[in-house]
Design goal:
Blueprint: H1 3-23, H2 39-48, H3 52-64, H4 73-85, H5 89-101, H6 109-122, H7 125-139, H8 144-162
Helix pairs in contact: 1-5, 1-7, 2-3, 3-4, 4-5, 5-6, 6-7, 6-8
Length: about 160
């Protein structure tokens, strides 16, 4: 698989991740309400309170510079990690993509592989297939020791989450 194909798979996965998150959004209430805080402020409050979906959304919006937030990959990485630590497989896949392509972070193939492994465990269907494809393409650039290290990191991360 060449880099152009890999990048298009990553882009398609990113779009699917956004669509999956949008599908879980709650519709607004039909009852009139007092003026609300801006969406970004409400999202930040929910993310800080432990809402994994909000943390993932915040990460996406920092990554792209939407909803009045600056484009800030360090913040995106932080919120993706918060969401992944709360069990969000889409956030884990997003971390894999950041590390795989060095998108705003130092490229780290072992970390990318590790996050893809974490994501694969929580995904199904086409989303899982896309992450498998990214992981398998990346595996061709890693040594067996690096793959084993990434697998150990994924196991340790999962074990720490279960405590």
């Amino acid at each position: 698989m060449n880099n152009r194909h890999l990048a298009s798979v990553a882009a398609a996965l990113w779009i699917m991740l956004g669509c999956a998150a949008a599908a879980t959004a709650q519709p607004p209430s039909s009852a009139p309400a007092a003026p609300q805080k801006p969406y970004r402020e409400r999202l930040l409050e929910k993310a800080r309170s432990g809402d994994a979906d909000a943390a993932f959304e915040l990460g996406k919006n920092y990554e792209t510079g939407r909803i009045g937030l600056p484009k800030d990959i360090a913040q995106a990485q932080y919120w993706y990690r918060q969401a992944a630590d709360r069990g969000d497989a889409y956030a884990a896949a997003s971390l894999g993509i950041l590390f795989n392509f060095g998108k705003g972070v130092t490229r780290d193939n072992v970390q990318a592989y590790m996050w893809y492994e974490v994501a694969i465990a929580g995904l199904t269907g086409g989303n899982k297939d896309s992450v498998l494809e990214l992981r398998d393409a990346l595996s061709r650039q890693l040594t067996p020791d690096e793959i084993a290290k990434a697998g150990d990191l994924a196991k340790k991360w999962k074990a720490a989450r279960q405590q």
